[in-house]
Design brief:
Chain lengths: 692, 378
């Protein structure tokens, strides 16, 4: 090789060497880029595809009623799965499994083949099999079949209170009602297992990072017996009256505890959470808890709010006479008729007879702002927060009222409320003016752990003054005794309430139809109400007093009996009422020819006295208290109703009447002997049992 | 005749170290797949160990041999001829057009084209060094290279690229005028184009690297014929999948790696983890230190190999050393470039590290020649 050629070769080689070293340097730079700079991002991508954190669910907590009856509980069951890659003969496997687990062999084979071809390492064969199936399959001792323990949710009471309790999906996740609202607590804390899998999902390594914690047991405020009565009464009422839907709430007015909550959709299959969800709109509707989710125009029941506001903010008293314009009023060029023409009615009678014009007159005296204020004070227009899927209803601020709105709202139109909101408002009247927040869960407890402190009641706001509430209670008692709500009269208990029938507005045709939202809200006993029951029947062809009040009667009677509420009236047979339904229609467009059947009731507001008067008018004698009934010729003082009163009040009243009283126990007067209305023989004592 | 001084110990130790390291990594990378496919995690490593033994024997043998014995026409032409014959045979009878099954072992004849061509090139260049630019001498050389190239291309495109690159390096240093390159480069590009276009999977790999979402191609080819053609290939997996998985493997190794045997990407996420993409497993398990170490090993081979060009006593030794060094180095860096997603997927193994007997045997015999040159070098 000559020198020139050699020097050319060397220089060319040097150039090549530089190119090669540069290439190496580029690769080194790339290595630093990937392994240092992009390391975190790429490592995360690696973990994303390799590792799978699966949650191990702890057993889901049970749901119990307030007396400890199971409403929902999860029990362990077994599921069958397999790794299709480990099965040698798919056809044989499909045949065998299909026979033992009563599956369709062709479908199973198709699934197996699809999984095997897709290279998947896991397939559920059948989930939540019966113990018999598990035993039968175990007997084959198949090494390619795997059993996994899962839990299945049982609802021992079936459809009882189902829209309230809700149900769970296939992964035991709540999908409605309490199951959804308290899902987090019922589920407990899921443990985490980290599995490292190969590209086909075959598990290489499984490590449990945290053990699952069992979910808490929830004790509801629901009383299963009351709930049963409520469900039955509402279902019957909806069927008999050909309503579209119905909802009902039973509430303890003192605590806000919801004792029962029912929701019925006509023509829908009964919602049983044990069964897989059915398709179709009626079945879906049946899952809805209409008591919280379906607001409606309340109609006349809302007059309670109007009158309460009037008692507090104006100089009106129950006895004040309101001009009712003979059933006709012109309000901002809108002519409103009453169902029955009245000339003059006391405030109490406006409520008892449910006079629209009277309510409008009272509303006008209250004024827009104050009426709005009281509507809000009673909790309307906002969610109570008790359950998921709740509707706040619609209460427009006064700025969006039209001039005649005050008239409509005073009698329960132009606002929408839910049955639960009505129960909340009615509770405020019943408990002396305090707006309690409704609640569904009484306590929660993790199994095996000390009981957690019962959730304290939230500091409630005050809706009205106690005096107002008491006046309202007495006026509402008159509605039952002598007004539109006579069918709500109870045996052995005093009761108060208000009927309502709002014509349903047809938004398509822009007219009020002749279907009604028939409702009744009431409480019993009057002096110390233990239950509030609100019934709404949507699409009824009769008024609230005719269709909703009997439901109140049935449910309240059951609730009072189950809760052992002391009776405050002597037992007697309820007179057969053969009257026509009371007219309490809140909408004025109805013709003046509506049936008129109101009978004049005693003007007194004293409940026992009124009841006694009623009894006398009927000419029927109390059954048990019969022998004690003293002819009116005795001049001694009649025994007042002490029940529900404090010891101090009892002492004061008895002293004023000059009665001798024997006290037993402490607290509130529960049982008295002889019953109210009796006249004592000289020297006889009244024995009163007190209890907290 | 130069004195027999000493073999290049640095080179020798580097090679032996890398082969041993390769065995460890092959075991790590292949055990999961071996267990899954053949029921024994040792399936691949036992075979590889056998091949290592055979290859090291060949390595020592060639190291001890005087390379000048090969400076004869029969050694220059016979291996090339045999390789071409084998390639053609394999093309018609072999498995996947690549392997020749001989009893328990399968050979990949395309791998042996490398040492054969390197010896041929060294012989030819030495013999015709002064007249290298004469068209009478260059033509037969080109014909031989083209023949080998064609034969290899039919089965193994990646190896063909390495061969062409090696030839180009040798001819370039030997002083071939640039005008020939001006002819050869378009020529080989044309060849490459047809080779690529003939197999949908090759086109798919190139497209995946250059224009993965077909934004340019769909502009040139509005009817989507190219895309349809590529998708007609048997490979159903996304051509972008493999480089992505390799990147994830390398990147997740970080500076220190996840630890030997701890690779997760080899759990079938990374296809060809023990062969073409073994460098990704190295990067994942041993981190930047491991990946840089392997790269450094090849740089050492480059350094010690090119150094012989100055030290070798004769031209045949110089060009033999250059050819071997270039073949090994180009193949190694091409492989790493692919794994690092800087170039399109080609399907060539990483010399000395990847699983594969033919590759190991051909690489180690070549390197044995290199060490033989170093033994004679001053």
């Amino acid at each position: 090789m000559d020198a020139r050629a050699e020097s050319q070769a060397v220089s060319r080689l040097r150039f090549l060497a530089r190119v090669f070293f540069f290439w190496g340097a580029v690769l080194l730079a790339r290595l630093i880029d990937l392994q240092i700079i992009e390391h975190e991002e790429l490592a995360r991508m690696a973990l994303d595809q390799q590792q799978n954190d699966s949650r191990i669910l702890g057993p889901r907590g049970a749901i119990l009623d307030r007396n400890g009856q199971y409403l929902a509980r999860s029990l362990p069951v077994e599921s069958v799965c397999l790794d299709p890659r480990k099965v040698h003969n798919l056809g044989m496997a499909a045949d065998l499994l299909a026979r033992v687990l009563s599956l369709d062999s062709d479908t199973l084979l198709r699934r197996l083949v699809a999984a095997a071809e897709g290279g998947r390492g896991f397939l559920w064969v059948k989930r939540r099999i019966s113990p018999e199936e598990a035993q039968a399959l175990r007997a084959y001792k198949l090494d390619w079949v795997e059993f996994r323990t899962e839990t299945k949710r049982y609802y021992p009471k079936g459809s009882l209170g189902a829209p309230l309790i809700g149900s769970v999906d296939y992964e035991e996740k709540g999908n409605g009602g309490v199951e959804l609202g308290w899902d987090k607590e019922l589920r407990g804390k899921a443990g985490v297992a980290r599995t490292t899998a190969d590209v086909r999902g075959g598990v290489i390594d499984r490590r449990v990072f945290s053990e699952p914690e069992p979910g808490k047991d929830l004790t509801l405020t629901i009383d299963e017996r009351v709930q049963f009565a409520a469900d039955r009464a509402l279902r019957n009422a909806v069927r008999e009256n050909h309503c579209r839907t119905g909802s009902l709430v039973v509430m303890d007015p003192r605590t806000g505890d919801i004792l029962a909550m029912s929701s019925v959709v006509a023509g829908a299959p009964v919602f049983d959470p044990n069964k897989p969800p059915e398709r179709g709109e009626p079945a879906q509707m049946a899952r809805l808890n209409l008591a919280v989710s379906a607001p409606f125009e309340p109609g006349s029941v809302f007059k309670v709010i109007t009158v309460s506001a009037a008692l507090e903010t104006t100089n009106l008293t129950p006895e004040t006479i309101i001009p009712c314009g003979n059933g006709r009023i012109t309000l901002f060029r809108r002519v409103i008729h009453d169902h029955d023409p009245y000339s003059l009615l006391s405030v109490a009678d406006v409520l008892a007879k449910s006079s629209n014009i009277g309510a409008i007159q009272i509303g006008l005296r209250v004024g827009n702002e104050r009426l709005y204020d009281y509507i809000k004070r009673f909790g309307f227009g906002r969610k109570t927060g008790v359950l998921p899927g709740e509707s706040p209803g619609i209460v427009r601020p006064t700025s969006r009222w039209i001039p005649s709105s005050i008239g409509s709202i005073a009698m329960g139109h132009e606002v929408t409320v839910t049955t639960l909101q009505l129960a909340q408002a009615c509770s405020a009247i019943a408990n002396g003016g305090v707006l309690v927040r409704p609640r569904v869960v009484l306590k929660r407890q993790r199994p095996g752990f000390p009981r957690e402190a019962q959730a304290p009641l939230e500091a409630p706001g005050r809706a009205v003054r106690p005096e107002t509430a008491i006046q309202m209670r007495q006026m509402m008692e008159r509605v039952v005794l002598a007004g539109t709500g006579k069918k709500a009269l109870l045996e052995g208990y005093t009761s108060g309430g208000k009927t309502g029938s709002a014509q349903i507005y047809d938004f398509a045709a822009r007219v009020y139809t002749h279907k009604y939202n028939a409702s009744f809200m009431g409480f019993a006993p009057v002096n110390n109400p233990a239950v509030v029951v609100v019934v709404t029947l949507n699409g009824a062809s009769k008024y609230g007093g005719a269709v909703a009040a009997p439901v109140f009667h049935e449910v309240a009677a059951a609730a009072l009996r189950f809760l052992d509420v002391p009776k405050d009236l002597p037992d007697r047979e309820l007179p057969e009422t053969d009257e026509k339904p009371a007219s309490d229609l809140a909408i004025a467009e109805i013709s003046a020819g509506a049936p008129r059947e109101e009978e004049e009731a005693p003007a007194t507001l004293n409940a026992p006295a009124a009841a006694a008067a009623l009894l006398e008018a009927r000419g029927s004698a109390p059954t048990e208290a019969g022998p004690l009934l003293i002819p009116a010729t005795y001049n001694g003082p009649k025994v007042p109703n002490f029940q529900g009163k404090t010891k101090r009040l009892v002492i004061e009243e008895s002293a004023a009447l000059g009665l001798l009283v024997e006290f037993r126990g402490d607290g509130i007067a529960r049982v008295q002997e002889p019953p109210p209305g009796m006249v004592l023989r000289p020297g006889e004592r009244v024995r009163i049992q007190f209890a907290r | 005749m130069a004195q027999r001084v000493k073999p290049d110990w640095i080179l020798f130790l580097t090679i032996v170290l890398m082969v041993c390291f390769g065995m460890v990594v092959v075991y790590s990378a292949s055990s999961v797949m071996a267990e899954l496919r053949y029921g024994s995690s040792y399936y691949f490593i036992l075979r590889q160990m056998g091949w290592v033994a055979v290859s090291l024997l060949g390595f020592m043998l060639f190291m001890r041999l005087d390379y000048r014995k090969f400076q004869r026409p029969v050694w220059a032409l016979a291996p090339v001829g045999i390789t071409i014959a084998l390639l053609i045979t394999v093309y018609f009878i072999g498995r996947h057009h690549r392997w020749l099954t001989l009893g328990p072992a399968s050979l990949q004849p395309s791998e042996f084209a490398k040492p054969a061509l390197v010896i041929f090139l060294a012989y030819f260049v030495t013999r015709r060094l002064r007249a290298i630019n004469s068209k009478y001498t260059i033509l037969p050389a080109f014909l031989v290279i083209a023949l080998v190239g064609m034969a290899v291309v039919v089965a193994d495109f990646g190896t063909a690229v390495v061969l062409i690159a090696t030839s180009a390096v040798v001819f370039y240093v030997a002083g071939l005028e640039k005008r020939y390159f001006l002819i050869a480069i378009p020529g080989s590009l044309l060849l490459a184009f047809f080779a690529i276009a003939s197999k949908p999977y090759r086109l798919g790999r190139i497209i995946a690297f250059v224009d993965a979402d077909y934004s340019i191609i769909s502009y040139l080819d509005p009817h989507g014929k190219i895309k349809k053609y590529v998708e007609s290939g048997s490979s159903v997996i996304d051509p972008k999948y493999q480089p992505l998985q390799a990147k994830i493997a390398i990147g997740s190794g970080g500076a220190l790696g996840v630890g030997l045997m701890q690779s997760k990407q080899k759990l079938l996420y990374l296809p060809e983890a023990h062969t073409d993409f073994i460098y990704a497993v190295v990067g994942e398990e041993l981190g930047l230190w491991g990946s840089t170490g392997v790269l450094a090993g090849f740089m050492v081979i480059l350094w010690r190999g090119l150094r012989l060009f100055w030290l070798a006593p004769d031209d045949f030794g110089k060009y033999l050393a250059l050819g071997v060094t270039a073949a090994v180095f180009v193949q190694a860096l091409m492989n790493i470039t692919v794994v690092l997603d800087l170039g399109p997927t080609k399907g060539i193994p990483l010399p000395m590290i990847s699983y594969g007997g033919s590759s190991l045997l051909s690489t180690l015999t070549s390197l044995g020649l290199l060490l033989s040159v170093s033994e004679q070098a001053g």
